Task: inverse folding
């Protein structure tokens, strides 16, 4: 067994109890690199507790925290305090309730966490990790708008729509996908296509298994393609509605 694993964690959406369960199932060690795909909050009730936990986790393990669109919306709310009705409807209400009970000091620490998030990570094997996608045919460094990295849905749509018989050498094969050996994303839950396990389309792996909705949380080993899943996240929060 490879001791130096690269493990990818899908969208958590404040499902801290599920996060603890999958990290335990995967038996993480200090040799592992943990890459979190973003969307730590907005969903279940434990937004503040989830961020506190991630801050602690980073002290002991190699963690890379990517930026999700929900993390950015929460950051904008924390720093601007203007209510965003759309964000409120899509999980922001639970997050704002969670932050209602914390000190200004804690908010400051969390603002620092949201600022420290990165829009993408590229590893030594030319594997790309990002929350959502990118649109430039030449790759991430040519992307015009940074927000695309955590809002785009066209990369996954492109990968899903690709004819499986189309050879990579074919003139019609999407140049976007050929820039990287593999691309790991979250953002668009696979529950939308009726699945609850990590899904691969072309060279894109989608690890968002719908933790904010009816799905479990997943941690995925990129070298072996082995994965571990929590119980469906809603079962940890029986008196809550989540984002349903
Ligand atoms: Mn998400």
Result:
């Amino acid at each position: 067994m490879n001791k130096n694993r690269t493990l990818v964690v899908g969208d958590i959406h404040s499902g801290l109890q599920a996060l603890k369960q999958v990290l335990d199932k995967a038996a993480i060690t200090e040799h592992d690199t943990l890459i979190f795909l973003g969307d730590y909050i907005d969903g279940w009730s434990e937004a503040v507790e989830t961020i506190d936990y991630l801050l602690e986790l980073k002290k002991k393990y190699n963690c890379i925290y990517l930026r999700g669109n929900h993390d950015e919306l929460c950051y904008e709310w924390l720093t601007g305090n203007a209510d965003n009705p759309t964000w409120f409807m899509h999980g922001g209400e639970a997050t704002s309730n969670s932050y209602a009970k914390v000190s200004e000091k804690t908010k400051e620490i969390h603002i620092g966490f949201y600022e420290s998030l990165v829009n993408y990570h590229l590893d030594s094997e030319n594997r790309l990790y990002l929350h959502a996608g990118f649109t430039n045919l030449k790759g991430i460094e040519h992307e015009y708008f940074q927000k695309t990295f955590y809002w785009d849905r066209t990369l996954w749509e492109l990968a899903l729509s690709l004819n499986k018989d189309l050879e990579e050498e074919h003139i019609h094969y999407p140049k976007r996908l050929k820039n990287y050996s593999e691309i790991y994303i979250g953002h668009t839950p696979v529950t939308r296509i009726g699945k609850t396990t990590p899904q691969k389309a072309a060279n894109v792996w989608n690890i968002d298994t719908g933790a904010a909705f009816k799905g479990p949380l997943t941690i995925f080993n990129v070298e072996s393609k082995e994965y571990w899943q929590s119980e469906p996240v809603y079962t940890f929060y029986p008196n809550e509605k989540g984002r349903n």
